[in-house]
Structures are given as structure tokens and as C-alpha cells.
Design goal:
Length: 229
Amino acid sequence: MAIDYTRRTPAQPDPSAAAPTGAPVSLSKITLTKSAPSVSLTKEAVSSGVLRVNLNWQSAAPAKGFLAKLTSRPVDLDLACLYEFTDGTKGVVQALGNSFEAFDGSSQRRIIWLDGDDRSGKVQGGENLTIDLSQTPALRRVLVFAMIYEGASNWAAADGVVTLTPPSGAQIEVRLDESDPSSRICAIAEITNSPSGLQVRREVKYIQGGHKALDETYGWGLSWVPGRK
């Protein structure tokens, strides 16, 4: 399956998928680690509303003197995901190629969307993926990843963190607390739909190579063509 890079505009929030007004907000947070890498979302948390996936990072401070010429461009860290639906539809949601939305192949309902592209790391809200939980039966798996589109592969300086916020219950945090300067892609977390419900598993696996290498690592089976923002 080839990836369609037809230009699309960034998706706008879907009011019909928003959490109910006045829904309780939990201030608790679960941080996934190597020793405790996975968590299940409760049935109550995925019965309605949306799952927000947020990426925040720091743009490296500009260097002074001679090094400024080499490191003047800030790191552009992009949030993205590979997805697979139960009807067999597969693809990618990302700013690269302007692929901002994913639709179920049978119902043509929008299930996943990206709200925009922060190229500086200075936008307070970071970048956000949204997953419509009313369409949970259509989900098979979603692999959340980040890519350094431009700038040095300095994951340590970026200090990235991904926070998943369900409609109710605790937030789930995955910190990019490891680094590999030879890799420009990091698989962060995989969301799978099992008989017991949605499972979130920490990955934080750095991939040497591009999207094809990421695909092969996780067995997605897509065909890749060059894209640009």
C-alpha cells in the first residue's frame, strides 16, 4: 500500500467528539518506565470522548560564536503515528506530506487527526494527536512516534515528553529520557485494542533510518514514497 501525500489542511477539533462539559478532571498521572512499561485504560475512560496525545519539547538554546553557524536552526520535533484499523486500513498521520487525518475505510469516519505542526518547540500546547474513542471497535493498533524533521538529532536537549489524556482517569506520561544522536525517529508508545480493552505500552525505541525502517521494525507493511512539509 502506497502512502498518499495529497495535501490537506490541519484538522480542526471535532465538537461531536469532545468530552462532556463538566466532566471530572483527574490531576493524577501515571509515568510509564522500563520496569513498568504498560497500562490498561479503564472501560469508563474509553466509553466516549477522545484520547489526546500531546508532545512537548524544548527548542535548544542558540549557540554563540562560531558554533552558532552550525547550530542556528532549532530542532523541529514532529508528533506522528502509524495506524491500523480492524477493516485492514493502514497509514500514517503526520505533518510530513500533510497527512493530518485518518479515516476508517468502511465507514469513512475520521478516527485520528493531528491539530497542526509546531516547528519551533515554543508553542505552549505543543503538538496534539486526537483519537476518537467512540470508534474504538475500529482500532487495531496505533504506534505513536516522533521525528526530528530538521536540526541536529539532539534528543537529550529536546527533553521531549508525550502525555496521553483520556476523558477520565489518570494521564499517562512517556518521557523521551533516553537518546541516540544517530537516529531521527523514536517510537514512543503503542496503543493496542485487545479483548480486555485499550493497552498503552511504552516503547522509547530509537530507529536508525527513516519511515521504512520504523515500518519494518513494527511490521506495518506499507510502501513509502518521499514527502515534504
